[in-house]
Structures are given as C-alpha cells and as structure tokens.
Design a protein that fits this description.
This protein has 216 residues and is of the alpha/beta class. Helices cover 33% and strands 19% of the residues. The strands form two sheets. It has a six-stranded mixed β-sheet with strand order 4-3-6-1-7-8, with helices on both faces. The longest helix is centred in the middle third of the chain and has 18 residues, at 131-148. The chain is globular.
Amino acid sequence: MARAKQAPPSSTLFLLVRHGLTPTTGKILPGRAPGLHLADTGQSQANAAAERIAALTRVDAIYTSPLERARETAAPIAKAKGLKVHIDKGLLECDFGEWTGAELKKLMKLPEWGTVIRAPSTFRFPGGESFNEMQVRIVSAIDRLRNAHKGGVVVCVSHADPIKAAVAHAMGTHIDLFQRIVISPCSVTAIAYSPGGPVVLTVNSTGGSLAELRPS
C-alpha cells in the first residue's frame, strides 16, 4: 500500500519592523538610553506599518524591544490585530556603551568609525557590545520565538542594526558586509524560516501589500 504523502513542514514567517522616526534619528546615537519617543512623523509611520500588517489574515504574536520608540511602534500594530505586545530583550538596540548619546557627526570623525563601517566584526563599542554579540543575540531571539510559534507569523519590532544583522545571517553574508543593508524607519523585512533554512522574502519594504509574501 502506498503511503500518503506528508505535507512539507510549514515555515515560520517573521516580519522585522524597525521603529519609527524619532527627533534624533540620523543625528544622535541613542542606543539604549531611556526616554526617546517617536516624533509625529514616526507615529504616522507606525500607523502606516500597522495598516499594512493589519491586511494580513494571520499574525500570531507581536514582540518588541523594551525601548520606548519600539514599544510605541508596536502599539498600533497590536491594536490593529487585537493582540498583546510582548517585550523581548533579545530585540534590543546594540549596546553602544560610552558612545551612547554621542552626535553622529562627531563619531564619524573618529578613526574607529572606519572600523565600524568596514570591519565591524573586529569592533566592540567602548564599555558596550560587539557587533558579533549583537548578531548572536538577535538570531538567538528569533530562534527562540520560532520554536514558540512554529508555522506561524510573528512580528518583531526592533532597531536598524539588529535587523541588518539578522538579514545578513539569514543570507549567509559575513557581518563585515552588513552595513551595506539599509533598514529605514518603520520598514518591514520578511524572513521565512523552515527546516531547510531561512528565505529572505523582502528587505526594507516601506509600501505595498505584504499579503503575497511566501517562499516560491
């Protein structure tokens, strides 16, 4: 008797959303300092991202970095889908240590800035985290959430560098090249994880429908 064909294992879809614009975006390296909220434009971006995600027939869970700007981005998404927001420290911004709160134009004049851009795998922020540690942290968080929501759709609101690091890992790209990836405020990056490995469906998507996102 012929055996019935088993359905292939379903993938788990992650929508990685960067938080919206803040008053210091592009000017200051805020890191994990508390008290930074979305600007009015950032709130509008968050509402637009929520509308795009609300069009999906299924979202199983919403997780966010603990920082205010990420939680404020996650809130309209959760409201649109009728879900609770869960805080996950694995989605935190990189720990910039002594560089936290510094002006970007001043940091760019430092000799270390060239290492940050061209050889980030060799760099550790003074008193803070290395890029390698950041990547391990975000990938480990995704793995943990993937096991908790197998076959589901998970929204994770995080920050530019952690999302870039997750994309680089999914694509098998060395962390030294991850600065070539652009993650704009409130953009959506979609990665499907299956037993055969991750598939990057879209990166830095800021408009259009998300309904057709699926591996070919």
